[in-house]
């Protein structure tokens, strides 16, 4: 057991478990020389504001060929996969990898959530985009990390940002509903083509 953290969701009980077989190597993360190289004073002016790093020829999701997987290969693992039946979701350090169904009864639903617990759980106010997978259809390639809740009995909740083939977020993993919009930050708008709900969507808890 590498780590165990238990988080409480007002709508449901949430457990996030990490159980990796080997200690992940995090040295490359810690070695990033960001702090010493960062010069915000030189960057954050209106005079020099421009899209300095944009490369029209670099791989980009907005221009990706949708007929095949698109792997940006962010993170330390380079073994993500995607086929017509299942695809991988991998954590940044690569210690944990799951395989989930991309179609059929195993892929239960897809959503965006703006509840306060999602703020804390993701350390973000941009909303949680995730999908629900039947417990019987989630395969642990290595380690374990997932979210479960009484609002989703028998299912696992996988955050969409862990998916390796990013074309899936434009396809079968595109959010179907957006909920807890009453708590969405005022500068965000509802996702285009996604059903909108002010509160919890999935009905009474069992
Ligand atoms: Zn939420």
Automatic annotation (TrEMBL):
CENP-V/GFA domain mapped to chain residues: 88-145
Coiled coil: none
Keyword Zinc set for record: yes
Segments for region (Disordered): 1-30
Cross-referenced Pfam families: GFA
Gene Ontology terms, MF aspect: carbon-sulfur lyase activity; metal ion binding
Keywords: Lyase, Metal-binding, Zinc
Family indicated by similarity: Belongs to the Gfa family.
Annotated protein name in UniProt: CENP-V/GFA domain-containing protein
Organism for this UniProt entry: Rhodotorula taiwanensis
Taxon lineage: Eukaryota, Fungi, Dikarya, Basidiomycota, Pucciniomycotina
């Amino acid at each position: 057991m590498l780590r165990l953290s238990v988080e409480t969701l007002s709508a449901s009980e949430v457990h996030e478990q990490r159980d990796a077989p080997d200690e992940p190597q995090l040295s490359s993360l810690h070695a990033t020389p960001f702090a010493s190289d960062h010069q915000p004073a030189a960057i954050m002016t209106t005079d020099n504001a421009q899209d300095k790093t944009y490369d029209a020829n670099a791989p980009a999701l907005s221009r990706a060929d949708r007929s095949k997987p698109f792997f940006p290969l962010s993170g330390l693992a380079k073994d993500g996969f995607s086929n017509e039946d299942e695809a991988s979701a991998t954590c940044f350090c690569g210690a944990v990898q799951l395989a989930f169904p991309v179609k059929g009864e195993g892929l239960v639903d897809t959503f965006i959530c703006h509840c306060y617990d999602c703020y804390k759980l993701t350390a973000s106010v941009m909303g949680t985009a995730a999908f629900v997978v039947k417990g019987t259809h989630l395969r642990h390639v290595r380690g374990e990390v997932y979210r479960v809740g009484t609002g989703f009995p028998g299912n696992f909740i996988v955050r969409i940002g862990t998916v390796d083939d990013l074309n899936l977020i434009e396809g079968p993993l595109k959010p179907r509903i957006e909920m807890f919009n009453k708590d969405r930050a005022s500068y965000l708008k509802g996702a285009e083509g996604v059903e909108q709900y002010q509160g919890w969507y999935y009905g009474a808890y069992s």
